Amino acid sequence: MTAPAIDVRDLHVHLGASHVLRGVDLRVDHGEVVALLGANGSGKSTLVRTVVGVLEPTRGEVDLLGHRLGDDVPWQRVGYVPQRVSAAAGVPSTAAEVVASGLLHGRRLALPRGWRRLAREALEQVGLADRAGQATGQLSGGQQQRVLIARALVRKPELLVLDEPVAGVDRPSQEAFAATMARLVDDGLTVLVVLHELGELAGLISRAVVLRHGQVVHDGAPPRPHAEHGSREHEHVHPHTSEVPVVGAHDVGLSDGPLLTGEQEARP
Ligand SMILES: Nc1ncnc2c1ncn2[C@@H]1O[C@H](COP(=O)(O)OP(=O)(O)OP(=O)(O)O)[C@@H](O)[C@H]1O
């Protein structure tokens, strides 16, 4: 039997004095596209950052592609798009150079032959081929986000972990991104993606996991369109229920409005 792509068991993470993740179990099998949902502060970023080895678990276990988190993980097969940070960060690198940095890993400190072509192909996948030579600092926030997505794609990962990849990205670019993802998922890519709204990716999501106060409160069917509010404008999901979350801004008894966007969790 093949090991799951991601296998998280009884994961606890403390950040400073906060007990942020409180016994999370999460399994993602090969070929699945799992959305990680929850209000602001529920622990989504902490979970994905721990899964990709950026943060240390306080307790519990994380296996990635069949290997316990650490040097044994074949990191070159894993792509990670962090929550929106500037791809520029004061460094005057071109888009192609930032993307090519995604080819660096472990023991290889030099870029492989043909890196420019690989970087250009990855930029093409996010609709930015014409910006390859441009300094990232001159790109818009949404374009910088797409450069970071290309940086994750350039290594042709089999597991892709994304933290709000389309936040601040305009609708046409979201559509282009969803189309690229659909192709990659067709080819067998496994995805764990933090989202505030399912948006253009809705059709790709095979399962949704909802966090609340650092615990999983739903693991199953993704949010479904609400009969009356299934339009794009109402695509908000409601994590404050252990029932299947519903897409729609006015679910009876759950909330007065969209709960994922802009809502901050209060500690219990
Ligand atoms: N370095 C830190 N030290 C202490 N607490 C932290 C630290 N980083 C995050 N936290 C807290 O951990 C909790 C979870 O944060 P996290 O970023 O994982 O939530 P999130 O669900 O990803 O939120 P968002 O939707 O806003 O991105 C929050 O209460 C946050 O304030």
Automatic annotation (TrEMBL):
Domain of life of the source: Bacteria
Biased composition (Basic and acidic residues): 225-241
UniProt keyword list: ATP-binding, Nucleotide-binding, Transport
UniProt record similarity statement: Belongs to the ABC transporter superfamily.
The name this protein goes by in its record: Metal ABC transporter ATP-binding protein
The keyword RNA-binding is annotated on this UniProt entry: no
Disordered as annotated region, ranges: 218-268
Residues of the ABC transporter domain: 6-238
Entry coiled-coil feature ranges: none
SUPFAM superfamilies: P-loop containing nucleoside triphosphate hydrolases
One of the record's GO molecular function terms: ATP binding
